[in-house]
């Protein structure tokens, strides 16, 4: 590995003071460009949306939003963003970076269909967000309550009333589990690699059942 470049070290009482290094909470070797990024598909739950997947990827690797947004495709404007819809997003590029099965990535995208209109703004269940989860099912207009928690889905921020467009953009990516305008939390602390916990079995079944009944059927 090439040694990192540093400016001239500070002197203290005639002695060289060794440079300080940041403390990494994850395996440093896996964060090197030669070995790729840190990500584990076991962190993902059924029917998880692409936005939710990218939030986890971003937090696990401490990446800025414009870097993550570029994964959608080389010609995507990260600030303008893109609708996370099948046919618009470069699935192969995502698969190679995240090492997530193509089938799982396809399920995370909106399916273009006249029969199932989607909400154009980010909709969420507060309990799901507290777990660090957002489902592609939450964006279907005909679904008004969370399949798992049976709570009404919310659109506006409770603090400022902002309704975030459902776009993979720098603005949304840099505010994981929070309002992209005032940064108030949508619910709980969200997700981090240190508190990752699997979804309860009954919730997994509820999302999977709803997916096949309302999304595929």
Description:
The chain is an all-alpha fold. It has one domain (about 40-205). Helices cover about 25% and strands about 0% of the residues. The protein contains seven helices and two strands. It has helices spanning about 50-60, 65-70, 90-100, 100-105, 125-130, 170-175, 200-215, and strands at about 10, 15. A two-stranded antiparallel ribbon has the order 1-2. Strand 1 (about 10) and strand 2 (about 15) form a beta hairpin. The longest helix is centred in the last third of the chain and has 16 residues, at about 200-215. The protein is globular. It starts with 10 loop residues before the first strand and ends with a helix. Mean pLDDT is about 85; it is low at about 1-35. This is TniQ family protein. It comes from Trinickia symbiotica.
Pick out its properties:
single chain; 217 residues; mainly alpha; two-stranded antiparallel ribbon; 2 strands; globular; disordered N terminus; TniQ family protein
Brief overview, please?
The protein has 217 residues and is mostly helical. The protein has helices at 50-61, 65-69, 91-98, 102-107, 126-130, 170-173, 201-216, and strands at 11-12, 15-16. Strands 1-2 form a two-stranded antiparallel ribbon.
Would you spell out the secondary-structure blueprint of this structure?
Blueprint: E1 11-12, E2 15-16, H1 50-61, H2 65-69, H3 91-98, H4 102-107, H5 126-130, H6 170-173, H7 201-216
Antiparallel strand pairs: 1-2
Distance between the termini: 51 Å
Strand order across the biggest sheet?
Answer: 1-2
Uncertain residue ranges = 1-35
Round the mean pLDDT to the nearest integer and report it: 84
The portion of residues forming beta strands comes to under 5%
The helix content, as a percent range, equals 25-40%
Total domains:
1
């Amino acid at each position: 590995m090439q040694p990192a470049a540093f400016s001239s070290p500070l002197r203290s009482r005639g002695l060289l003071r060794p440079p300080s290094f940041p403390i990494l909470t994850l395996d440093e070797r896996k964060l090197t460009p030669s070995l790729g990024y840190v990500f584990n598909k076991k962190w993902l739950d059924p029917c998880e949306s692409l936005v939710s997947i990218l939030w986890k990827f971003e937090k696990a690797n401490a990446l800025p939003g414009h870097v993550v947004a570029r994964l959608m495709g080389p010609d995507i404007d990260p600030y303008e963003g893109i609708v996370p819809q099948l046919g618009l997003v470069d699935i192969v590029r995502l698969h190679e970076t995240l090492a997530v099965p193509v089938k799982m990535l396809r399920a995370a995208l909106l399916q273009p269909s006249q029969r199932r209109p989607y909400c154009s703004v980010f909709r969420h269940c507060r309990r799901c967000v507290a777990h660090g989860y957002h489902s592609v099912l939450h964006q279907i207009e005909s679904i008004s309550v969370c399949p798992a928690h049976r709570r009404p889905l919310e659109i506006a921020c409770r603090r400022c009333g902002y309704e975030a467009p459902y776009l993979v953009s720098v603005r949304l990516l840099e505010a994981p589990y929070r309002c992209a305008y005032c940064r108030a939390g949508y619910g709980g602390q969200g997700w981090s690699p240190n508190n990752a916990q699997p979804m309860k079995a009954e919730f997994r079944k509820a999302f999977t059942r709803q997916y096949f009944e309302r999304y595929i059927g």
